[in-house]
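User: C-alpha cells for both sequences below?

Assistant:
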Amino acid sequence: MRKQQAQAGDIVLLFVDESEALTHPYLARAWAPRGADLRVPAPARKIAVLGALDHARRDLVVTTARTKRSTDFIGLLERLDGLYGPRPGQPTKPVVLVLDNGPIHTSKASRAALDARRHWLIVEWLPRYAPELNDIEGVWRDLKAHHLAHRTFTELDDLDTTIHDAVANLNHRRQRDPLVSPRISA
C-alpha cells in the first residue's frame, strides 16, 4: 500500500539501510583452474555506506563513514532533513522511512533522533531478518557487482570517491522502474 501511495505522489517512501564497501576487490565473476586459490592480496579495510532510496523518484542518497554507528545513522537523518524535511511556507508530503531492526536504528540515540522528527517522519519497521523486503538491498548488490567489483583500492579516500561517483552515476542512469531492464550478475 505504501508503494502505491508513493507512486501516486501522496507520500515520500524511503528505504534505508547500510552496507560496507571493502578496499579489496569483490569478485563478482572469476575464472581459475580447478583448485586454484582466488585470493587477491590487498589490505582489508572498509567504509560504511549508509543510504536511503526514494521509491518513487528512484534516487539514492548516500553518506559514507569509517564506522557504522548510531552517530553515522543520525548523520544520514540530518542529510534527509535538508532534502525531505519541512520548509517554512512550503507544503510537505509525509515521509515514510522503512527501517530494519539493526542496532544502529534501535539505539537510544537513534530512537531520540527519529522521535525528534516525528512531526514529519513516519517510521515503518521491517520484520527481523527480512532483507528481501528492503528495496535498497538490490541497489547495494548493483553498486558492488557493477561499480566496485574486481577493483582494489589502496586508500580509503579513493574507495570513498568511487562510491560517491558510482552513486551519482546510478542516480543519473537509473530508470523509473529498475525491473524493466535488470542487470544480472551471474
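Moving on to the next sequence.
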Amino acid sequence: MMKWLQILRPVHWVKNVFVFAALVFSRQLAGSFEQVCWAVGRAVGAFVCFSLAASAIYIVNDLMDRKTDSIHPERRSRPIASGRVSPSTAGLVAVACIVPALVGSFLLSPKLAAILLAYTVLMVLYSLGLKHLMILDCAIIAVGFCLRAVAGAVVIDVFISPWLVVCTFALTLFLAFSKRRGEIAQLQANSEAFRKTLGEYTPELLAHMLDVSSVLAVICFLMYAMDSETIERFGTNSLVYTSPVVLYCIFRFSALTQNGQYSDPVKLILRDRPFQMGLATWAVLCVGIIYFH
C-alpha cells in the first residue's frame, strides 16, 4: 500500500491549493449558503482533478528519471527507481489517474478541462526534455502554478486580476529557483550527474535569480493590493499592510534553502514551524481584510 502512495505523492497535492486563490480573493465565501456551497464544491472538484493529473505526471517523471534517481540520496528509495514498482504497472496507474481527472474537469467546465489538458501536456513535455533547459525548466514550473490559479477562477466563473497571475508566476519562479539551489547544496559534486541543468546553475547565479524573483513577487502583490479594482472590491487598500509578513516568509524560505537545510520546498512548507506561522498569519490577515473590513 505504501509504495502506491509514494508514486502518487499525495503530500505534493498541497501545491494545488493555488486553485482556491480565486475562491478567496473574489469574495465567493461571502455569498448565500447555496452560493458558497456551489463555489466551494466546484473549487474542491478542480483541486481533485489537478491532484490526480499531478500524480499521473509525477509517475511519468519518475519513469523518465528512474536511472538518475538511483544516484540521489533520497529519491533512490522511490518505488520505481528502486524497482518495487515495474514501469508497466506505473504506466497503468498514471492512466488510471489522468483519465478521471480529464473527464471530471470536463464535467465541471469545458474551459477547466482545456486548462488541465494544457497543464498536462506542458508537464509531460517538461518531463520528456524541457527540464534540461536552464531557466526554462523553472519558468515552466511557474507557468504550471499560474494555470492552477487561472483554473480556480474559471471553474467558479470569476475574474482574476492579471496582477495576481503575475504575482503567482514570480512567487512560484522563486520557489523553483529555491529548489534548484537546495538540490545543489544537497548533492554538491553529484549535482550535474543527477540533473544536467544543475551543472549550468551556480550558487551565485541562483542567489541573484532568487533576489529578482522574490522582489518581483512582492512588487506584484503590492500592485494588486493598490489596484483600483482591488480597492473597489474589498473597500480598502489594507492588503498593502500585510507585506511585512510576506517579506518575512520569503526571507526565511530563501535563507533555509540557500544554507542547504531543505532541498524540496514542499518539505520546508510542511516542516518549518516559523514559516508556517508566518504563512498562517498572512492568510488570517488577508481573510480578515477581505471579508470583515
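User: Anything stand out in the second?

Assistant: The two ends are 47 Å apart (CA to CA).
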